[in-house]
What does this fold into?
Amino acid sequence: MKRFFRIRREPEKVVPDLGVISISLLERDATLPFTIRQLNNLPENVKRRVYRGIFPPTLLTRFGIDPIQWTSANKEAMVFLKAEPNSEKVLITAQTSPDPSTEFFALELADNSLNGIELNLIVLNDPTAQRFSIDQTEDGKPTMFGTLKRNLQAEERALGAGLAPGQVRAGLRGSRLVFEQIDTFLSILGHRAYFLEPLTYASAWVFERRGFAYVRGHKLMDDIHREFQPGGALYSCLDDESTFRRQTQANTVRGRAWAIHDGILETFGARWDNIRMVKQIGRHAGVETFPGAIY
Amino acid sequence: MASRYRITRAAYLASLNDFREFIKEHCANMPGMNTEKLYDVQLAVDEACTNIISHGYAGLDPGSIILDLEVAYDKLIVSLTDFGHSFEPSSAPIPDVEAPIEEREQGGFGLFFIQQSMDEMDYQATEDGNKMILIKYLSKTDGGRQ
Amino acid sequence: MKTEMQHENNSTIVSVSGNVDALTAPDLANAIVDQISQGHVNLVVNLIAVEFMSSAGLRTLLGGVKAARSHGGDLRLISTNPGIDKVLKMSGFHNIAKVFSSQDEAVASFG
It folds into this structure.
């Protein structure tokens, strides 16, 4: 019986450091992955054409935005692309009117140090929903979504309105479509996976549902689930003493996320930190660290 | 028509039982399967996952192990994906099963058992994860291989 | 994984049930070391009720054999599970230590 045993390292698809995608490079190998920096060095119109692929068309057309021109019926620009030459990042935002507070979509992708792709930011907001200024302190300083500083009053109101920590507005339905489109876009670029670091426990849960697995932090998620059970270390810290530590929070994703945002993990010497997730293009990892969860 | 199943668990030792039970659940009733072959597959999966847990994620906050199982009429294919350090073959010498006890190294059997239990093994390390593929043939003639 | 001790004639029987894998093998190692430190150096490890054992279990048993012998005793096995027998065979355990298929035989071997 023949047996064989192979260990290989896939030859790293290192693109020659030209910074430019040329026709001959395109002709050479259909599977070579391109970096964001290379895309950003493309001529402006080629770049825009390529980045159009980030949107599922219906995400734009539902707000009356033309998916090709990126304009409203009034021919005003509604989608903004920040993809500077030689930059390793791209930021795309979309709003429903010239007023920036109607922004409903923001996405930032970046090259990481291993020629892979990071999703640095994804925001999908309902532009008609009430806005809570958790992103600014009372005197207008940025809070970095509540990670640097906290605007407790705004957070209490946001919690009361059913938001998760880090959200300024209720989310927009349709994230599954958006993530499927990101998969498609990255596969065109030649990437097999991309990475992100979830801002909160609630976002980690959403990413699990979208098919992400953990590069780091799967055990922490399991530990959190276990300790929020009655009798667990986190459960016992939900003393109903504050808005962010009510006992009922143990039972929902949002509730747990607020307690974690409030620092409850210090109970067992942990922090919401160093969690890293990965999405394999076209595959759903089936991770469910909070089985049967109520959001 | 192949059937495909998947289970993903955190890379710590308490997950080993889940992976073994998963194999049992989906493979025990395959045509051509018997108790010996089922043990072989469970053993190979257990050893591979133990390696990932002990070495792949050593010193790191454990991530996931994704086990994909493909069950065809004459073979099964197990794929294990993880996102830790990749495996270095030079660090796993083949143990000497004839050696007297004084000369026995403390470790070293895991990879050896995998090779003994499965018919094919392929390992690929990439920046997007490490993937080990293990194949077991089930038909009487072992797929016609010599 | 559970272990139960029983002293019989000249030996101590460590009956193991459940699975001996990388998670549970240290518990078995502790049980063995415990017995040896109490002076029970003739050990019979009964694996009849063990459903699954991996190389981690094997390492523990090899370590147990070394430890028992270094204290003037020995460690012998009872095994009837074909899967575990195969693990023992693949590793050449039979070249190192005795494996029996019944408790009576194993205990009797210690005289």
